[in-house]
Input
Amino acid sequence: MQTIQRLVLKNFKRFKALELEFDPELNILVGGNEAGKSSVLQAIDIVLSASRSKVDGIGLEALFNADCIYEFLAGMRKITDLPELLIEVYFDDLPGRHDLDGRNNSKGTDYLGIKMVCKPVDEYTKEIQAILAEKHENFPFEYYGVHFLTFTDEAFFPFKKPLRHLLIDSSRINNEHATREYTRSMYAAHASAAQRNMHGFEYRKAKAKFKDDVFKTMNEGLDAYKFDVRTSPKASVETDIIITEDNIPVDSKGMGRQCFIKTEFALRNQEHALHVLLLEEPENHLSQVHMRKLIEHIRASIKKQLFVATHSSVIATRLNLRKVLILSEENPSRPASLMDLSTGTAEFFMKAPDNNVLELALCKKAILVEGDAEFILMEALYKISAPGCSMDADGVHVISVDGTSFKRYLELAKLLSIKVAVIRDNDKDYAANCVANYADYASASIQVFADSNNARHTFEVCIYQDNQAVCDELFAAGRKTLSVEEYMLKNKTDAAFQLLEKKGTALAAPGYIQRAVAWIRA
Amino acid sequence: MDKSVVFAVAGSGKTTRLVNGLDEVRRFLLVTYTQANHDNLRTKVIQRFGYLPPNIAIYTYFRFLHSFCYRPFLRSKKNTRGIIFSVPDRFPAYPLTDDRRYMSPGRWLYANRLAKFIMQSGLLEAVVARIEKYFDVFFVDEVQDFGGNDFNFLLAISAAQVNMSFVGDFHQHTFDTSRDGNVNANLHENFDAYKKKFERARLVVDTDSLKRSRRCSKSVCDFITEKIGIDIQAHDERTSVVRYEDDPAAVAALYRDPGTVKLFYKEHQKYECFSQNWGASKGMDCYEDVCVVLNPGNVKAWKTGSFRAINPETRNKLYVACSRARGNLTLVPELLLKGFKRF
Output
């Protein structure tokens, strides 16, 4: 199977330098809004298409890393220091493709691959020199050349493509140009070159026959000037085809349905089909039900290498967390892989209820709490423990975790070096439940906080004991059989919600929570 | 691993033998020295299979050298722009380790030193590995034209663990594109010493399989053996007319005959007739009757009875030209064609 092994970027969009190693089957790219997920898909798409018009359409200014341009202009502005843009795509073994096999790559080692290089054209150095000498802030993009080359440094052309790929960008699903490109790629993936030639030929023949038969009478009434139908390259099979579902053009369906159909069709396993499929935020426009269906289709697809850029924890966990690559906003050149996550944990998240795994994976600091009551009150307790501060301002996320699965999250946090405070109940045995239990995880960046007094066995007990007057005032009225403490234990979320609503600023935070807040802020 | 070098005579079926050795399964690397032979070989391969099978790669030697052996390893690093066939200046004489020895100031690689550059850069092993990785069989046609550094390079890469067959005709050595100073300057002086070099590289030398010409008649073969001094035997007893013609009217008729190719020592394009140059006619197998045009020096040699004593390179080219004849061979003096020459 032809697959992409590695991507190397230099001065491409937000990446001054980036190197990603890929899984041969599935790669899930996650990251914040500006982390560059789409840029990675775009880079692969640009190189595999080897289309200069695609690059011209986007413009070099939009493709170049803004920082390197700024630094160049602010620096000595020497012609030899002009930044170059590089995208390299490395392939697995492609039998017989010695035209791709060479060491003209950034590694200087024999690999199979293709690259796009944008660099100043040597013949223009004089003109560039003149522009740089003027001290204005315009960068001479116009004097740059775009080259698609193989690793043997020979020119690379689209017809030499070692694999067929397709980018489906759900945000452009209704865009006419994107639709045409999609249709054409799918057509190329389902018809061999010989078939396509035959289709083109027959289409032209059919048009000629139409003219001869249908226009006959009309044209006979004319002498020198007659009517005909267009047969130019702008009106060929490739421009005129559409895709239908039950005889209805797919383009005329709703965006959600279009996203679903287009992705599902591309995922099918057929002869001549696609080798690489790039999916940009497939969750867009999809309902939960359709998203789950799509996930099933993605999981079932074989003989394809998939790249999925997503914000959705559901997609990431259901597909396989171990295939996740995390792009960081702060540190774009240092992506993290979840490859080393244990199989058990990856499978756990695949099966577990919908969760916020990606929120944890993408943050720097997190407080993991055991249930909904803690989750509801955490923000208030945080402000009380650290007056004048807020979790948003401190960049701390609260994630509610089912008590039994703390360790799954901690494994992830450990792998990604995320600072995590676990806040949990001692469940009447502090030493066993809260210390010994996490001996393998506790570290400089992971700490477990719970009340060390076994009598104070849950969050509600601690809250009640530390805020007896407030709780009695809120909940004592109307209690007949249950004590206030018992009521709070039986109606955890409701009690928490009322406390937050009515006494949110008047509470005292239990000692272990105060310690957790102080530690996580440090 | 079968590795052999077959020395053949003109018209004995070298190319046919190569093409018959091909199949649609094994991965073949075919290297020819000249562009003309590359095109010729390509046509024959298409004739044999009905198309150009994707498992057969046909290269001219310098394209092979540049795009298969040099570019994958060094292009970006050396930032060169391509290959040129002009001969490097003798001075300044840069040392072997200086890149400027191998490329022009404009960073074009000198063809005759490219093989040396690759060897000097320590890439022989990488080239051999690349051949082994992508091919099962390595064929070289026109092996006699490899000289200078290219001959050393060819022997060095013959270490590749693939089946190998080189074919050539020692006496058809006419090209000097490879010449680089003293390197292998005397390579083609002595056939026995030449053969030994292949034997030392562990290639089996075969001078038997292709020693009879199928193309040339017995008359043409006898003429070449006797007058040019190069041993060639005919495959059968077929005879044809071999003659020297200096009757102006007969020569003019030959000149106009579209069925007879006129082979000139050089500048055939200055004559508006069916023509080619001696050297460039190598590999051509499509002529029937041939008219070889002799310049005054060669006419003199003819009149003294033999071409044996003329300049060896010219003699080889004359041999190539004469051995193109499938049918009749006529020698004419260039002087009689002067009136047709365009300036």
Summary: Chain B has eleven helices and 15 strands. The interface with chain A takes residues 27, 54-55, 67-68, 71-73, 75-77, 126, 130, 133-134 of chain B (CB under 8 Å). The first strand of chain B starts at residue 3 and ends at 7. The CA atoms of residues 279 and 317 of chain B lie 5 Å apart.
